[in-house]
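A sample copied in:

***
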Amino acid sequence: MKIFVTMKSLAKRKNYLTKIETHLSRNPKTLRELLKELVAMEVQQFNKKQTEEKLTAFLTNEDMELQAEAGKVGFSNIYIDQKANLHTAIQNSIQAFEDGLVKVFHNENEQTALDAALDIQEGDQFTFIKLMMLAGRMW
């Protein structure tokens, strides 16, 4: 099943949103199942990226321009040897949703319950917004 996922952090200064086409292996019945599957895909991708070795470490002008638009230019190196733990990552994502640190929208409708029935159709769009706590003092 093909869906589109958009992620946004309100801490980022630029509106850099990209719709990513994602293929699910099955049709999740709840938001909890969807989060588990998406996190599993991200953990697998992260762990795979750690083991890959690039033969050349350089950026083309086009790469630098694209990254400059996003606000950061770099080689995307991962400097830690530790692999991501799937169980911990899933727990963290569910806890973040329960704590209100992440908002999830399914076709512009906010999802407020992890275990409520979720009717996902081919080509649906999910938007994840990461909220940041503000630090400082009140006047």
Summary: The beta strands are 2-9, 19-23, 102-106, 109-111, 125-130. The chain is about 30% helix and 20% strand. The mean pLDDT is 83. The longest helix spans residues 31-51.
